[in-house]
Design a protein that fits this description.
Chain lengths: 335, 335
DNA sequence: GGGGGTCGTCGAAGCGCTTCGACGAACGAT
DNA sequence: ATCGTTCGTCGAAGCGCTTCGACGACCCCC
């Protein structure tokens, strides 16, 4: 592996000049620059990342903390991750992958040992134990999600409360008055997962504002969970004409269940999903849905981190507005 | 951030002694070690990763290259990734996430700049353009998959040829003679994806050995693709009594399709899937399947990398034997 | 035509760690 | 007692890069 000294010698300049060619931090004459660049190309020189980090205190690496639980939506996580990696590369950064199960100590390890310049943390809970630790780090951090107390930490996410309101507005506009929310599994609520609570709160509030008759029900995974959930809904809110489904895994069995009960969509019951676009499109009937824009959120997280890294100011909480797209799962109730 | 010098001062020893306490590369008296460790704990010292990498030429970081295509099985990839990260951590390594779309240059970038000690590359194709580049790197590499010419590179994977044979043996044992393979989408074959070809070859060979009447058919994603695939199969191999499905995405629509055509599983038609265990279990009927042990393969990849890193020898191709587990989707044909 | 700037380049220091050689002390064997 | 070892520790060199201050050369303006 050639070093910067080899390049300098080959180009007949000093190592510092090579460095300045690379960084552009000082003016270098066109001829010199050309010679240096030729030498770099010829020798196949790549600066040593460790040496660079040591000298400049910059690693050009971001940490990305992903959950690896199974009850959480794998494709969504994957979309976030690829969005983050792709966006990071456009800013000349690489991504170090951490799993949530290392908890606080994992964050501290990579931060204290200066392996990364900044962190992006997914799957945030309401009273996330990692938050106090994150506040103490010298590296900037961006959360994907919204903890109970976001003070001192920058957060980005979809505006789930607005998303909930959006689904209800749409259904109300179609004329629905009795609407049930099929939520995530109870374990998600139990963990205090941020997006679940925000969606629930938005749903309840919008329901009151619109004067609707609604109920909410978590939904265990699997056929059995869905069956039970639907039964409870029918018992508690008889004559329900629309379902808002904020549970990607339940979606499929739920549609199956409705079909085998002879309830047609949208003739007998309307459904609005909250899920990634491709999931909504991959169902037997294309579902009217509020998109979960993993890609945008991931990209925004990276942009925000970059802003923080070069000291620019940024708002501390940034919630993306939801967009509902109409497909084929909503109609006016038969009445 | 305290440095090794701060620790040395606090413990009343020289920096090199602290280093030897950390690395254990020279004997240190119990008292000294205790004092040093106390100082480390008190100051919250973490060695600077860059400095360490520079001095020792070891980064304790692995690169993991994942595909980010959409036609490829997201949950499987995610399982690989988490298995790799988890296993890497047990060896005190972290994982840098690269996407396949950076191609050869991404590999060269992280390798030449000494960001990683070794690489693990997923989603290998038969004539993968990255292979020659990988051979040239000074860092050891482990492929998950099997290229056409694996010379000079270590590979680990499930033995897909054996897996195919296993499915046929099982179905033959049940008395099936007419069996069709529902394969991955044509684009997967077109790309020369290693596992698809190996499964196909194993299927064809075992079919001949067992004297079965079989056919194979790729399957486009989506309901339409499945419908077409089934129609072709019925046309080409009338009276087919069993299906081997090597296409995770097609699985669900395929079952739907069979059901709505009034073909019961396993009474009218048997199905063996090749997919991760949880996918097989998540279907309306628990499917008899050959497990794709992402977790084991990921773990094995890391173990292999570690072996290479400390100079131990390792076989150049390691294929895990498949295991078929019986569930409820196979029975003897009505005859 | 001399003073003040800017431009382009160099040299040296230093980032925080590992590692090698050296060296005194302690110890067992003769 | 003496010599050779092993044990435990230290000092210094160096890993490859960035960055700061310095310094000619050159240009512009009064």
């Amino acid at each position: 592996m050639p070093t910067i000294n080899d390049v300098a010698r080959a180009a007949g300049v000093s190592p510092s000049t090579v460095s300045y060619v690379l960084s552009g931090r000082r003016p270098i004459s066109a001829q010199t620059r050309a010679r240096v660049q030729a030498a770099i190309a010829e020798l196949g020189f790549h600066p040593h990342a460790g040496a660079r980090a040591l000298a400049s205190s910059k690693t050009n690496v971001l940490a990305l903390v992903v959950p690896l639980r199974v009850d959480v939506n794998v494709p969504v996580i994957m979309q976030f991750a690829t969005a983050v990696v792709t966006a990071a590369r456009t800013h000349n950064h690489d991504v170090l992958l951490l799993t949530k199960d290392e908890g606080t100590s994992g964050l501290e390890r990579v931060a204290h040992s200066t392996m990364v310049d900044a962190l992006i943390v997914m799957d945030v809970e309401k009273d996330d134990v990692r938050i106090p630790a994150l506040r103490r780090l010298k590296q900037p951090t961006v959360l994907i999600g919204l903890p109970g107390d976001p003070a001192g930490i920058v957060c980005v996410d979809l505006d789930f409360a607005a998303a909930a309101a959006e689904t209800l507005r749409h259904l109300a506009w179609h004329g629905h008055r009795k609407i049930a929310l099929v939520g995530p599994s109870p374990s998600v609520y139990r963990r205090g997962t941020s997006y679940a609570e925000r969606f629930l709160a938005g749903f309840t509030e919008a329901s009151a504002e619109l004067g609707l008759e609604t109920m909410t029900h978590p939904c265990e995974p699997g056929q059995a969970g869905v069956r039970e959930c639907l039964a409870d809904i029918d018992a508690e809110l008889p004559g329900v004409t629309a379902l808002v489904v904020h549970n990607e895994e339940a979606l499929r069995p739920l549609l199956d269940q409705l079909r085998s009960a002879g309830r047609r969509i949208p003739e007998d019951i309307s459904v609005v999903a909250v899920c990634p676009r491709d999931v909504a499109l991959g169902m037997p009937i294309p579902l009217t849905s509020v998109d979960i824009p993993s890609h945008d959120v991931g990209g925004l997280a990276v942009e925000t981190v970059m802003k923080l890294l070069d000291g620019r100011h940024t708002e501390s909480v940034r919630l993306l507005p939801p967009t509902l797209v109409e497909r084929e799962s909503c109609a006016s109730p038969a009445s």
